[in-house]
Amino acid sequence: MAQKSTFGPREAPTLGSPSRALFGKMLKEAQLSVAERDFILEALRENVRLDGRGPDQFRSLNLSFGNEYGHVKLQVGKTSIVVRISAEVTKPRDDRPFDGLFNINLELSAMGSPAWENGRSNDLEAYVTHVLDSVIRRSNALDTESLCILKGVSCWSIRADVHVLDYDGNLTDAACIAIMTGLRHFRRPDAVVRDGQVIVYGVEERVPVALNITHNPLSVTFNAFNEGNNIIVDATRKEEQASEGELVIGINNGGDVCFLSKFSGAPLDAMEVVTKSNVALEKVKEINTKVDKIMQVDLARRAKLGMADESRAENDR
Amino acid sequence: MVEPTASLSTLNRADGSASYKCPATGYDVLGSVNAPIELPARRDALKPEDATIEVFVKPGNTTAGVGERYVEGILRSVLTEVVLGRERGYPRRGVVITLAIVGGGSVERGDSYLTVLPALLHTSLLALLSASVPLAMTFSSALLGVTKSGDIVRDPSAADAKAASSLHVLAFSSKGHLLLNESEGCFDFDTWELIRERAVSICRGAAVSGTGEDVAMGERSNDARLDGFVRETVEDRLHVDYAWKIESN
């Protein structure tokens, strides 16, 4: 800072400030070559995608569960994600004494892509966190009031940790599916209030309870190409790089749109937004059915292992 | 003793990766290595002839805190000795090791981080091997706990570790040298000597344990040795990778 005064008044603040220079260059994903970009665009003009999918087709969804409840491994094509849900008892916020806490935590590490730096956030991280927050947290998919144990004194704090293991495009939708699946799969320990004392029962003492999920919203990301003539879902990393703009729609099984955004890129026809929200609804229904089926199989397997009561808990309400 | 399981090169984007599961402690660790990678800021000024090793530990369901920073420091100092950072292509470049604890219990705030350390060490070694980073040696590491009654237990569970009077993590290089010694709690030199002998027999088998004739009867057989486990994992992977070549011979 002392150095700055010696430059005098003529030093324009816009010309590379010293703090900027200290950060040096940022790591970046390898760029698409011109030929590769042209190839993707030309192929899309003929309605062909690099991996042979249709424009409204997701990559294959591979879902599995870990040993604990709420431990989800999801693969969408080559994008691979692990989500872990955890719960702990804390004090509720002073302005919301009846509400529990719910947080989504996404931290991109060098594991997912060499272009991401450990311990430093980047644009993608901020963007995905924002979408996830809007689609899942702010749409009240998890009923936070049901997490209250004793008004103003103690409540559950639910935490979803997203680990990106492999990044090959469409992080938002994949993370959305994984978090929602995790929340539905998770069981928290039972807690009761007796004489003003909060008692948390261990998993062995009492059947753990499922979270109260109000609806199942998922995000569907559309990528536009060739002046909005080609719009596709579930873009791979290469397709994302060649894309001219994207549209994100968060929608649930009932067709309620809870999030819609067009952050940047080329403009899109208003009619497209309407038609694409229909496509999004269809996709969300399709994915939710698929997830349900896999989750039922897993819960049935757990039931066989002598935990019959726990797997039934979700439908008891 | 249930052996740990591991597989190499499980990820697509990272240069090298390994997943490691230790059934005794329950930890499931995924490691990735990116090397050699260009460092974004000028962090190479201090050692222009050597590679910079960066270790990042990502806990499963909490935000990284002092515990992670502490264990990262230990890992960095061990791995700096192991990686040949002066080989062609490595000076002034980074070796970025990312370790995510994706399964099993998490280390509670204030609990000892030593319980995860062997799993983290093995994962990073396997990931480095998978990324073909030049190494001076391989190593194996063991976690031992001393109970209140003075018994030495191998791989104590989280609850046992909490109750233990002292915890020890020792690592031995493939040449048999003591590479790392981290201890926590109260113990005397005689106990430590017993611990060392036990750790040698776990990591390296009885052949090199020298004086320790009456310790660790269970770990005598060669296939139960931990350095053998690292070797076998890499052998299995090579067998798969070079199937085309082996078939044609």
UniProtKB/TrEMBL annotation, chain A:
GO biological process, one term: TRAMP-dependent tRNA surveillance pathway
First-listed, main subcellular location of the protein, grouped into a coarse class: cytoplasm
Annotated Exoribonuclease phosphorolytic domain residues: 57-189, 217-273
Keywords noted in UniProt: Cytoplasm, Exosome, Nucleus, RNA-binding, rRNA processing
KW Amino-acid biosynthesis (keyword) present: no
An example molecular function term from Gene Ontology annotations: mRNA 3'-UTR AU-rich region binding
Endpoints of the signal sequence: none
Compartments (UniProt record): Cytoplasm; Nucleus, Nucleolus
Pfam families in the record: RNase_PH, RNase_PH_C
Entry's Gene Ontology cellular component terms: cytoplasmic exosome (RNase complex); nuclear exosome (RNase complex); nucleolus
RNA-binding recorded as keyword: yes
Family annotation (InterPro entries): ExoRNase_PH_dom1, ExoRNase_PH_dom2, ExoRNase_PH_dom2_sf, Exosome_comp_Rrp42_subfam, PNPase/RNase_PH_dom_sf, Ribosomal_Su5_D2-typ_SF, Rrp45
Domain of life: Eukaryota
Membership in a protein family: Belongs to the RNase PH family.
Protein name: Exosome complex component RRP45
Organism: Penicillium atrosanguineum
UniProtKB/TrEMBL annotation, chain B:
Localization, UniProt: Nucleus
Domain of life: Eukaryota
InterPro entries named among the record's database cross-references: ExoRNase_PH_dom2_sf, PNPase/RNase_PH_dom_sf, Ribosomal_Su5_D2-typ_SF, RNase_PH
Record flagged with keyword Nucleus: yes
GO molecular function: RNA binding
Keyword Iron annotated: no
Alphabetically ordered keywords of this record: Exosome, Nucleus, rRNA processing
GO biological process: nuclear mRNA surveillance; poly(A)-dependent snoRNA 3'-end processing; rRNA catabolic process; rRNA processing; U4 snRNA 3'-end processing
Classification via Gene3D superfamilies: GHMP Kinase, N-terminal domain
GO cellular component: cytoplasmic exosome (RNase complex); nuclear exosome (RNase complex); nucleolus
Protein's UniProt name: Exosome complex subunit Rrp46
